């Protein structure tokens, strides 16, 4: 009987405040979508780091005829200097850190350059001799690249030693900023959602102040009076949370998996597993947040 009465009060409150309930649903949906997006972006960044860092190489660029610097004072690296770098890579000092390496001469570098910039007019002005001969080194542990940099940078004929992870870090830093920005917007929207839920509950309570007064006269407890209002807030927020979770699943399925993963097959992307991991967290979190906001709002109202 008490349960039926509570459900009746919940239905009455939702009907009386349809516009406010819709507002709560929309704000909750938008804010939690931002939260979920930020979470998925961070998962994607971590996955891409694990994927690309293992593939990141250390490039040992040999001097060309146009290179400057003390190591390139003699012009283009000669055969002895190239062999000296190879000997250093095979030495007992560096060999334990190296998984594999290969040498790219002028012609190979030129072919790779033409493939990479096939639609760029700059290829018409580049000749093989302008491109560095390079040792490409894969390390067993990419974080130990400093060992190679320190050992090879000073060798004659070496124009420079570059860890490709430095380029990846710049990309990931930009992605992290985007993720933090999305999270910041989400927090602002969550605050708006909490305030809107609290306002909706207070307005609902005010519109039913006569019923509340009668309940108090007949001895109804505060918990019995508060429960319908809390349930109203939870229901409105729950609808928005479910929509946000569904939106994330659809975005991952149709945009990430069907579009990005197809267009960029050599990159690791998050899948539906990550989306189904984040979505329940959003739904539970949205419901708890709404319950807390409604509880505080109705408790303060009943004390007035």
From TrEMBL:
Domain of life: Bacteria
Pfam families the record matches: FtsX (PF02687), FtsX_ECD (PF18075)
Subcellular location: Cell membrane
Membrane topology: Multi-pass membrane protein
Annotated InterPro entries: ABC3_permease_C, FtsX, FtsX_actino, FtsX_ECD
Transmembrane portions of the chain: 21-45, 174-201, 229-256, 276-298
Domain annotation FtsX extracellular: ranges: 57-161
Subcellular location, principal: membrane
Protein keywords: Cell cycle, Cell division, Cell membrane, Membrane, Transmembrane, Transmembrane helix
Domain (ABC3 transporter permease C-terminal): residue spans on this chain: 185-292
Family: Belongs to the ABC-4 integral membrane protein family. FtsX subfamily.
Function: Part of the ABC transporter FtsEX involved in cellular division.
Subunit record text: Forms a membrane-associated complex with FtsE.
Official protein name in the record: Cell division protein FtsX
Protein species of origin: Herbiconiux aconitum
């Amino acid at each position: 009987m008490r349960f039926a009465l509570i459900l009746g009060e919940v239905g009455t409150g939702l009907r009386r405040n349809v516009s406010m309930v819709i507002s709560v649903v929309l704000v909750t949906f938008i804010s939690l979508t931002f939260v979920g997006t930020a979470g998925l972006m961070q998962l994607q960044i971590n996955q891409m780091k694990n994927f690309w860092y293992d593939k990141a190489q250390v490039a040992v660029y040999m001097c060309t005829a146009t290179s400057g610097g003390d190591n390139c004072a003699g012009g283009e690296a000669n055969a002895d200097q190239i062999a000296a770098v190879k000997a250093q890579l095979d030495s007992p000092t560096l060999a334990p850190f190296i998984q594999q390496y290969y040498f790219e001469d002028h012609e190979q570098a030129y072919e790779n350059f033409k493939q990479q910039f096939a639609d760029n007019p700059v290829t018409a002005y580049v000749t093989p001799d302008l491109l560095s001969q390079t040792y490409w080194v894969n390390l067993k542990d990419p974080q130990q690249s400093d060992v190679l940099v320190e050992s090879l940078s000073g060798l004659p004929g070496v124009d420079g030693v570059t860890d490709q992870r430095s380029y990846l870090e710049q990309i990931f830093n930009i992605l992290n900023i985007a993720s933090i920005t999305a999270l910041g917007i989400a927090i602002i929207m969550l605050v708006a959602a909490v305030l809107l839920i609290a306002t909706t509950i207070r307005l609902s309570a005010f519109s039913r102040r006569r019923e509340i007064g009668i309940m108090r006269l007949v001895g109804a407890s505060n918990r019995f009076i508060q429960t319908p209002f809390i349930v109203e807030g939870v229901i409105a927020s729950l609808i928005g949370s479910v929509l946000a979770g569904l939106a994330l699943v659809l975005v991952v399925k149709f945009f990430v998996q069907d579009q990005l993963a197809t267009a960029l097959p050599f990159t690791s992307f998050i899948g539906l597993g990550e989306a189904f991991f984040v979505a329940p967290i959003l739904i539970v979190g949205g419901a708890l947040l709404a319950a807390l906001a409604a509880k505080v709002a109705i408790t303060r109202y009943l004390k007035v």
